[in-house]
Amino acid sequence: MKKFDKLLVRSFIGPFFITFFITLFIFVMQFLWKYIDDLVGKGLEWTIILKLLFFASASFVPMVIPLAVLLSSIMTLGKFAEQYELVAVKTSGISLLQFMRGLIGTVLLISIGTFLFANHVLPVANLKFGSLLYDIRKQKPALNIKEGIFYKGIEGYSIWVGDKGPDNQTIYDILVYDHTGDQGNNHVLIADRGKMYTSGDERYLILRLFKGRQYREMVKKGSKQEEYEHVTTVFEKWEKFFDLSEFNLSRTKEGLFKDHYEMLNLGQLEAALDTLAMEKEQKKEELEKNLTSFFHFYKVDMDSVIQANDVRQATQPAWNADSGTFIKRFAPGSRRGLMKRALSFARNTKSYIKVAARDMRHNNRLTVRHKNEWHRKFTLSVACLVLFFIGAPMGAIIRKGGIGMPLLMAILFFVVYHVFTMSGEKMAEEQALSPFVGMWLATLVLLPISIFLTYKATLDSQLFNLEWYYDVVRRLFGRKSNDDQQENPRQ
Question: Is a pLDDT exceeding 80 seen at residue 88?
């Protein structure tokens, strides 16, 4: 039996890793096309791009592993069933679950590894990926001054070059607008020829112009018109150093992103949930405390008010809100002021309640997302087991190895798993479902299917055997045609 276990595990590991790396490569390429606009044209080193792809690939691992488990289990059991090795095992008195015990242990180790990865490795990878992507998006495009187009990448300057020499340094027909004075186009340089190159340490861009003119408008002081509106300077050589430090990738401290729910492990998520619960209770207490300042009757001794009201009721008619007798108890000159004050209190109360409600909704959304992330640590590992008990019985039933039918069935069930996972998470975020039900929705849907398929596989069911259905249809129509021949024999 141990020999069968080793053979089965070896047959499973190969397709598992092949499927894992191919699927991971597809997801990484999809990510690359999604963020290609943020990467191209910024002069990033290839090491930075590789580092970004490496951190991004870590976020795809939890999605890739369940698919790899599903497809490799279908292929492995389908291959054994197609070669009638499962039949030989069952005839020797070994059940399907006993035959798969080595494979079950392997998938259990994969599930535990998935949980450890999601809890310890994935938060760190998400933190580094998020901070690096943020810095890349802030990065300015690389310095690239093209012919016939104004270049505005250097802050405070607009540079226009008519033509470039073969050495890519000599430039002709140069026009430079200096906006550093924040007064419009009052400072212009024109030159017929020049050179543009970077310093040896690539910290500065050196722009050296020859035989040009400089136009500068004079700043007017007061309303009196000055005698000269602008100054023209003719120069033989003009040189300017531009600082290129703003084109270098500057790294933001990762601590600014570490409190995001996707970058926390189980212990940190539980601490964050406790903090959110305390903040919610604190906001409720502050709301109740601040609202009492708008209702002065809360500060009055209500027993004395009731006694005074009983005395007044003996001599005056009872207050009726519709009749307006309450406001008539006050002097005519003070009624308008009292109504304005009451209206102001009502408006302030409404405004404060709106702000408090918005804060409560934000707190609830954060709480739900933290709970979703907490449950995700477990749902990924459990999904590996559930999809395995779908894939392995499926392979034993369809009795097909290779890529064709197993790949089709794996894609079908993985799409079902992914759709229910995304739908449950979205409904949990919208608070239509609890975080527990939303995050475990896919597992709750697929678990009965896995139990049903495992039961059918142990009974050698022909559930997904297309040839069995063809035989049934052939026999049915064949018997019907024979009955027709018996009813209408040839003369």
Answer: no
Per-residue pLDDT tens over the stretch 132-150: 877 776 655 445 667 777 7
How many other C-beta atoms can be found within 10 angstroms of the C-beta atom of residue 282? 10
| Terminal C-alpha separation, the chain | 65
Cα–Cα distance, 452 to 461 (Å, whole number): 11
CA angle, residues 48, 54, 56, in degrees to nearest 5: 105
Sign of torsion, CA 328 331 333 337?
negative
Angle between helices 46-82 and 404-429 (to 10 degrees): 120
Q: What token pair was written down for 350?
A: 């409404």
Distances (CA, A) of 323 to 119, 326, 330, 337, 342: 66, 8, 15, 20, 18
On whether the CB atoms of residues 409 and 386 are closer than 8 A, the answer is: no
* 8 A C-beta contact, residue 337 and residue 345: no
DSSP secondary structure string, 162-228? EEE-TTSSEEEEEEEEE-TTSSSS-EEEEEEEEEEEE-TTSSEEEEEEEEEEEEEEPPP-SSSPPS-
User: pTM above 0.85?
Assistant: no
Q: Identify the three-state secondary structure at position 148.
A: coil
What average pLDDT does the segment 384-394 reach? 88
pLDDT in tens, 188-247: 888 888 887 777 666 667 778 887 887 777 665 555 555 556 677 777 787 777 766 555
d(CA 207, CA 187): 16
Give the pLDDT confidence of 285-339 residue by residue, as tens digits.
888 777 776 665 555 554 554 454 454 444 444 444 444 555 666 667 677 777 7
Angle, to 10 degrees, between the axis of helix 2-34 and the axis of helix 101-116?
A: 40
Question: Among 62, 79, 59, which Cα is nearest to 15's?
Answer: 79
Q: What is the mean pLDDT of the chain?
A: 76
Both structure tokens of 246: 């703003």
Tabulate helix, strand, coil % of the chain (nearest 5). Answer: 65, 10, 25
Instruction: Please give the pLDDT value at position 444.
Output: 92
- Candidates 452, 378, 462; CA nearest to 413 is 452
Distance, in Å, from the CA atom of 168 to the CA atom of 17, rounded to the nearest integer, reads 49
Check: CB of residue 393 under 8 Å from CB of residue 100: no
Positive or negative, the Cα torsion across 427, 430, 435, 439?
Answer: positive
The continuous run of DSSP H or E covering 209 comes out as: strand 204-217
- Structural contact between residues 209 and 191, judged by C-beta atoms closer than 8 angstroms: yes
CA separation for the pair 38, 50 (Å, rounded): 14
Q: How many CB atoms lie within 10 A of CB 26?
A: 12
Tokens of 477: 């129509």
